[in-house]
Amino acid sequence: MAATEQEVLAGLAEIVSEETGLPTDAVLLEKSFTDDLDIDSLSMMTIVTHCEDKFDVRIPDEDVKNLTTVGDAVSYITKAQA
Amino acid sequence: MTRATITQAQPTRYSRILAVGGVRGEQVVTNDDVAGPIDSSDEWIRQRTGIVTRRRAGDDVDVLDLAEGAARIVLERAGLTGADVDTVIVATSTHQHQTPSAAAIVADRVGANPAAAYDVSAACAGYTYAIAQADALVRSGAAQHVLVIGAEKMSGFVDPTDRTISFLLGDGAGAALVGPSDTPGIGPTVWGSDGSKHTAIRQTHAWDAIKDDPSLGYPTLRQDGPTVFKWASFQMAPVAAKALAEAGVSADQIQAFVPHQANMRIIDQMIKQLGLPETVAIGRDIADTGNTSAASIPLAMDRLVAEGQVASGDLALQIGFGAGLVFAAQVVVIP
């Protein structure tokens, strides 16, 4: 069953926390992966891969560059699940 | 009229690596040496790749010289001469002649003439592809002693202003001598390709494009770093795991993991994905040598042996992966 935006955010926050060591409550919708969370393009690919597994979605490499903020990723995943 | 029956080569049961060794480019190139033209820094390169220095060969050394150097070392270690070698396979993507092959020239240089000799084009997976072939040739009876060499002068394809791959690259050659064995020494190879991703690691333009537009100049290499990272980290770990399974061993039964030295972060992610215990020695030669493509696995294995991190008879999981995309993994017994 598709997850709600809140559930996707919670799951994504866990994945980001695992990859970066940041607390999950630092992963907020308006945060930029690069500028706020200091996530580089390789770590981003790790996060994307774990999201694909966790939420059973496919995120093509060419779409990853458009996922600037946590909110971008949450809405992308939520739509992809629909 | 009855037709005559032909004789086929008689197979032998097992093969193994009899010796491994290699040479690195003599020049030590620091991150500071390459950071300027890509507007980068020592810190960024270390964080991004784990590379501290890369080794590069001078203008007077070509890929044939590197291959010859590695070949001479393994022949000596195996206690053999060139005359004992009946097949030479050179894995390279940086030999400067489309033809003839590097292998024929190297075979002649090391006294292996008239051994069968050919090159393998499988980029950074070239060495593990060639080990797969050597294993099959020896066990089929088609060859007795196969000299496998991964040799690259990657610096010949470097664009100093390229931020995608050039700053990773180093020069060197690693070799292995493969021969018959009384016990199993090379596990089944798990290998394959994905040509749909042929642009992920690529030459900037084809050779014939220069005929039409000489201003293009000599081609260099580029890669889509994040795409390659994702593929290598997450799709290659299952390939490596399958090589373990096909060899009939588990992750806690091997003593070394020697992946292609592409990027330390790929290596770290693969270790995580494979769930390797801390007792497994890891090939991390990239930190000092850089990415030497087809040469990187034998160089990293040679270093683990030289540093006493592994011993003769230990089991090593090795996996090559790179442009193509292509990949090959197998478990081998360390000579």
Automatic annotation (TrEMBL), chain A:
Pathway: Lipid metabolism; fatty acid biosynthesis. One of its GO terms (cellular component) is cytosol. The modification O-(pantetheine 4'-phosphoryl)serine is found at residue 41. Signal peptide: none annotated. Coiled coil: none annotated. GO terms for biological process: lipid A biosynthetic process. SUPFAM superfamilies: ACP-like. Pfam families: PP-binding (PF00550). It is found in: Cytoplasm. Keywords: Cytoplasm, Fatty acid biosynthesis, Fatty acid metabolism, Lipid biosynthesis, Lipid metabolism, Phosphopantetheine, Phosphoprotein. Its main location: cytoplasm. Residues 3-81 form the Carrier domain. One of its GO terms (molecular function) is acyl carrier activity. 4'-phosphopantetheine is transferred from CoA to a specific serine of apo-ACP by AcpS. This modification is essential for activity because fatty acids are bound in thioester linkage to the sulfhydryl of the prosthetic group. This is Acyl carrier protein. It comes from Sediminihabitans luteus.
Automatic annotation (TrEMBL), chain B:
GO terms for molecular function: 3-oxoacyl-[acyl-carrier-protein] synthase activity; beta-ketoacyl-acyl-carrier-protein synthase III activity. The active site is at residues 124, 260, 291. Belongs to the thiolase-like superfamily. FabH family. Homodimer. Residues 261-265 are annotated as: ACP-binding. The keyword Cytoplasm applies. Residues 244-332 form the Beta-ketoacyl-[acyl-carrier-protein] synthase III C-terminal domain. SUPFAM superfamilies: Thiolase-like. This is Beta-ketoacyl-[acyl-carrier-protein] synthase III. PANTHER family: 3-OXOACYL-[ACYL-CARRIER-PROTEIN] SYNTHASE (PTHR43091), BETA-KETOACYL-[ACYL-CARRIER-PROTEIN] SYNTHASE III, CHLOROPLASTIC (PTHR43091:SF1). It comes from the Bacteria. Its EC number is 2.3.1.180. It catalyses: malonyl-[ACP] + acetyl-CoA + H(+) = 3-oxobutanoyl-[ACP] + CO2 + CoA. InterPro entries: ACP_syn_III_C, ACP_syn_III_N, FabH, Thiolase-like. Residues 118-195 form the Beta-ketoacyl-[acyl-carrier-protein] synthase III N-terminal domain. The keyword Lipid metabolism applies. Catalyzes the condensation reaction of fatty acid synthesis by the addition to an acyl acceptor of two carbons from malonyl-ACP. Catalyzes the first condensation reaction which initiates fatty acid synthesis and may therefore play a role in governing the total rate of fatty acid production. Possesses both acetoacetyl-ACP synthase and acetyl transacylase activities. Its substrate specificity determines the biosynthesis of branched-chain and/or straight-chain of fatty acids. One of its GO terms (cellular component) is cytoplasm. GO terms for biological process: fatty acid biosynthetic process. Pathway: Lipid metabolism; fatty acid biosynthesis. The last Arg residue of the ACP-binding site is essential for the weak association between ACP/AcpP and FabH. Keywords: Acyltransferase, Cytoplasm, Fatty acid biosynthesis, Fatty acid metabolism, Lipid biosynthesis, Lipid metabolism, Multifunctional enzyme, Transferase. It is found in: Cytoplasm.
